[in-house]
Amino acid sequence: MATVRGLTPKERQRREDRRAAAAELFAERVPQAEVARRLGVSRQAVHRWHRLWQAGGRAALASTGAPGTKSYLTEDQIRALQADLERGAAAHGWETDRWTVPRIRVLIYETTGVWYASLGSLWLLLRRIGFSCQRPVHRAAERDEEAIRTWRQETWPEVKAPRRASGPGSSSRTNPPPR
């Protein structure tokens, strides 16, 4: 399920329902401490809700939307960005088919005209729409897996020094362990 700035729609609705229940309890003149206990929230939250409820009724407790600043991109632009990213970097003219955050910033600017000055805020957008950091595994082009396997099985056991026999030991040079 897609999240909107950290909360799923189900979680957002649960919070909305909790505030609505608080409004009903306020209307019934239930003490704030009891409201907090019944709803499983802090007394500070209930106190804040009560002040809002007194000033504007139940409507004042309605959600004002996701916290933080609004996205620079519309939902349609975000869906188009996801499709562009899934096509790959090579499809957009990059030499390698590897997306980096600076490349994605250029892609967004070329397709929408929006320039993300902060790579951090762009990274938050990417995480919100389901992308994660992936580090490629670098392997030498000349790597010979069969030669490596042979060396590990045959050469390494011959080269490896045998372990000392177990027994009492000491880190002191002047006082060796008793024999």
Automatic annotation (TrEMBL):
For the region Disordered, give the residue spans. 151-179
* Composition bias, Basic and acidic residues: 151-161
Which Pfam families would you find in this protein's record?
A: HTH_23, HTH_33
Cite the Winged helix-turn helix domain residue spans from the record. Answer: 96-155
Residue spans with biased composition (Low complexity)?
164-173
This protein's name = Winged helix-turn-helix domain-containing protein
